[in-house]
């Protein structure tokens, strides 16, 4: 079943057809290395998987679930996270992050996400991403960059 959504583009609506639908899944995995620990990324002093790295894995799993289904010239960016990190994972252990698309509301994609190591679930929650037009996004970023040169 195809989902139809509108993307506003220079005052005109362009209808985009996509196969984006609830149930799409993504998964990524890593073996925790020192570069993934809290002291290395600046989020703590204990040498275990850092929460920001776990969150990054969850976002990557969400990307993997929908990446190949987006219209040309479009991408997703993260806009909301509601995540818990409930168990520590030591260096050397494998971590898998999973995402499942649970809702498509126009340009907003909602994912159920969780991560687990070789022993247990280590975190989970909800992640939202919004579909953007890369050309329009880049124009906005270039406008922001002009503010730096004025300072």
Which keywords apply here?
151 residues, alpha+beta, Thiol Ester Dehydrase, Chain A, five-stranded antiparallel sheet, two-stranded antiparallel sheet, 3 helices, 7 strands, 25% helix
What does this structure look like?
- This protein has one domain (21-150): Thiol Ester Dehydrase, Chain A (Roll).
- Mean pLDDT is 90; it is low at 1-17.
- It is α+β, with helices and mostly antiparallel strands and 151 residues long.
- The strands form 2 sheets. Strands 3-5-6-7-4 form a 5-stranded antiparallel beta sheet. A two-stranded antiparallel ribbon has the order 1-2.
- β5 (94-105) and β6 (108-117) form a beta hairpin.
- The chain has 3 helices and 7 strands.
- It has helices at 38-41, 51-66, 134-150, and strands at residues 3-9, 12-18, 25-31, 74-85, 94-105, 108-117, 121-133.
Query: What is the total number of structural domains?
Result: 1
Give the ordered list of helices and strands.
Answer: EEEHHEEEEH
User: What are the low-pLDDT stretches, counting only 5+ consecutive residues below 50?
Assistant: 1-17
CATH architecture title: Roll
Q: How many strand segments?
A: 7
Helices, by number, come to 3
Termini separation comes to 50 Å
Strand order of the largest sheet: 3-5-6-7-4
Q: What is the general shape?
A: flat
